[in-house]
């Protein structure tokens, strides 16, 4: 075999490997799901087209797939679509352990795709976060008994431990989008109701703004919905219990069921369906 022909064959083999890697679909994705893998940096670059005021961070144990994040440009607007499907979450089986060694897949009771603020929020430091959000046409809630609660979080202030968030914005299949026990948007304005969705019904945009100060003594919680102030609590403790000093702000989709029990008790997480939301005009600043 001539040197030129051997060189051509090596280059062709390298090209095939590159094409396969570039369009990689991960084999053995959890619970029978599929994932066209993208890099965390690519996912953050897409989200950065819509968010402003902070750098993004990615949980190093979290999977990143093409279906998780999409930039939609229409009518001069940039819209960030975030979706979760079967098998998405923190995967320690991929050798990417997060700081606490947690695995959504091993526990079997979580599904998520989230971004973090790169800079932590200190206790007794206030911030403002605002965005417009809507529930999209292709969203379906997990099919669980009608008597069981079901929700997913779309914004969290979290201490970074294996513990609860101190502030959340959640999507509740019975009540709607909620924060501070206030209904931001009822389910009647979703593009999806409970476990079904109607493709011709598009969810309505709702504008949300939150000002929050994490404090054990003199914090505040303020909520605007479509520019109307609906919650205004000042000089109050905004969390209790352990004296946390720093917090992550997270956004995206984080979902569980009614308690953190063993995997075999939560078949709903292994349903082949999709949860989706859209954000636009996403801004953050310290105040």
What is the C-level CATH assignment?
Mainly Beta
- Could you list the spans in which at least 5 consecutive residues all have pLDDT below 50? 13-24, 93-99, 193-200
Mean pLDDT: 83
Count of discrete structural domains: 1
Major beta sheet summary: 8 strands, mixed
Order of helices and strands: HHEEEEHEEEEEEEEEEEEEE
**Given the structure, what is the number of helices?**
3
Give the tally of β-strands.
Answer: 18
Please give the alpha-carbon distance between the first and last residues: 71 Å
Known CATH architecture? Sandwich
Label the structural class: mainly beta
Which band does the percent of strand residues land in?
35-45%
Helicity level? 10-25%
**Rough shape?**
globular
Descriptive report:
- It contains three helices and 18 strands.
- With about 290 residues, the protein is mainly beta.
- The protein has one domain: Jelly Rolls, CATH 2.60.120.
- The strands form three sheets. Strands 1, 3, 4, 7, 14, 15, 16 and 18 form an eight-stranded mixed beta sheet that branches. Strands 2, 5, 6, 8, 9, 10, 11 and 17 form an eight-stranded antiparallel beta sheet that branches.
- The protein is globular, with a radius of gyration of 21 Å.
- The termini are far apart.
